[in-house]
Automatic annotation (TrEMBL):
The keyword Endoplasmic reticulum does not apply. Belongs to the class I-like SAM-binding methyltransferase superfamily. RsmB/NOP family. It comes from Thalassospira tepidiphila. This is 16S rRNA (Cytosine967-C5)-methyltransferase. GO terms for biological process: methylation.
Length: 448
């Protein structure tokens, strides 16, 4: 399926312009190379590499990378019979150049000539002169023969890595797993949280959006955030509708103190503060905490901010009435927004996060007053990071019990509440409204 994009400045643009603005295709290659490390996200790399690019080129960069990542399995399958990566250190770069070329050829509205020619130029500019003939031959072959679809497979089977397909099938069954996979390859809507929740309907009307049962305002994607009414005055912030649910469960905590562990960039901190509670935002990343400061400032809300590893807080750190733990996770529920997860994440990496989540849960217990509530959530579809973590925490902490999340708290929406009273949101939920990110949330009470 073709995806629309704006055209970048042509490669044969006047020399002066080419020197001033870096080639977005070269930046796309650089980004793909850096994504392989697994640590840095596409959004972080896009802000680094896209910074200062003219907006047309920045859009093209984002679209080229998004398209390549969403179709990576198909692209690799169509390249495989025509190209064996050379056994030298340029192999990864060469493969990524071909992937970018094939993405433009088959999934974007670049002309065939433009896709082949610009990819050959990219290889030359990247210092791979030796391989320009090979690239030209592979892409011309693809252009001539079209997309030769491997037999007996569907696109989601190629584009979603086997470890994810297998884990979703095991957790949810074959049919739901396929639905999750297909939905994950789509595009996400634009969701907003309104600072004054009593004004939600008015803001939705002003922005031509709808109000979801859970209270978020939903807009069509592609709107320029800064141009929307209320942005400058800080009347709302961008926050995925599923991720916005946990903090709304604290509606009875006005004037109470709540730890927001793993808080950056601060979506949930702003929600807690807007409920009239005192938020203590803790995050180990100084860089990401800057975003919390900036966000709070824009929306004129306040919170205490602590920079540090939440698993390593001083033993005399004061306790609070509630703790929200939005633990670091594989984020496999957010592939629609972050298609780089398909390339960066793997089973081993996900497994390596489990002990950190357990440690953070144990620390959350130390910070919570008796009688208080601990809300644990992750934007992962993997039960190891959600249901199993909670089950094992409860087994180790008999002084806790689940407090079921109810449909009343979610505006009557009950599709995602499981038998244990936890929230297990799947990307196939709320399809009539454009779907949801995958998400898990459980509420636990400290009885003694
Ligand atoms: C899922 S994001 C949090 C999103 C945030 N709660 C929000 O709603 O905007 C996870 C965050 O956990 C932080 N983090 C990871 N390990 C941590 C630790 N041991 N202590 C404190 N923060 C940690 C990361 O820096 C990252 O900002």
């Amino acid at each position: 399926m073709a995806e629309r994009r704006s055209r970048p400045s042509p490669r044969n643009a006047p020399r002066k312009q080419a020197v001033e603005a870096p080639d977005p295709r070269m930046l796309a290659l650089k980004t793909l190379q850096e994504l392989r490390g697994g640590e840095v996200t596409l959004d972080e790399l896009l802000s680094k590499h896209g910074y200062g690019l003219p907006s047309l080129d920045r859009n093209f960069l984002r679209q080229l990378l998004g398209t390549t990542l969403r179709h990576l399995g198909e692209i690799d399958a169509v390249l495989a019979p025509r190209y064996q990566p050379p056994q030298d250190r340029v192999a990864a770069r060469l493969t990524n150049i071909l992937r970018l070329g094939a993405a433009q050829l088959f999934f974007m509205d670049t002309s065939d000539y433009g896709a082949v020619d610009s990819t050959v130029n990219l290889a030359r500019d990247a210092g791979l002169h030796k391989y320009t003939k090979l690239i030209n031959a592979v892409l011309r072959g693809l252009q001539r023969d079209g997309f030769e679809w491997p037999e007996g497979v569907e696109d989601w089977q190629l584009n979603i890595p086997a470890w994810l397909r297998g884990s979703w099938k095991k957790a949810y069954g074959a049919e739901i797993a396929q639905g999750i996979a297909e939905a994950s390859l789509g595009h996400a809507m634009l969701d907003l949280s309104i600072k004054d929740r009593s004004q939600t309907a008015e803001w939705a009307e002003k922005m031509d959006g709808i109000v979801l049962p859970t209270g978020s305002v939903r807009l069509e994607p592609g709107r320029r955030i800064r141009d929307l009414p209320g942005y400058k005055d800080g009347d709302w912030w961008v926050q995925d509708a599923a991720a916005a649910i946990p903090a709304t469960l604290f509606s009875a905590y006005k004037d109470k103190t709540i730890y927001d562990l793993c808080a950056a960039p601060g979506g949930k901190t702003m929600q807690i503060a807007s409920l009239g509670a005192s938020a203590i935002a803790v995050d180990k990343s100084e860089g990401r905490l800057k975003r919390v400061f900036e966000n709070l400032e824009r929306v004129s809300l306040g919170a205490a901010i602590v920079t540090g590893d939440a698993t390593d807080l001083a033993p005399d750190t004061p306790r609070a009435d509630a703790v929200l733990l939005d633990a670091p996770c594989s984020a496999t529920g957010t592939i629609r927004r972050h298609p780089d997860i398909l390339l960066r994440q793997n089973d081993k990496l996900m497994q390596s996060l489990l002990p950190i989540q357990t440690k953070l849960l144990n620390q959350a217990d130390k910070l919570l007053n008796v009688g208080g509530e601990l809300i644990y959530c992750t934007c992962s579809l993997q039960p190891e990071e959600g249901e199993y973590q909670v089950k094992s925490f409860l087994a180790d902490h008999p002084n806790y019990e689940r407090k079921a999340i109810t449909a009343d708290e979610l505006g009557g929406w009950d599709e995602a509440i499981n038998d244990a009273g936890e929230l297990r949101i799947l990307p196939i939920h709320m399809t009539d409204f454009g779907g949801m990110d995958g998400f898990f949330c459980a509420r636990l009470v400290k009885k003694s």
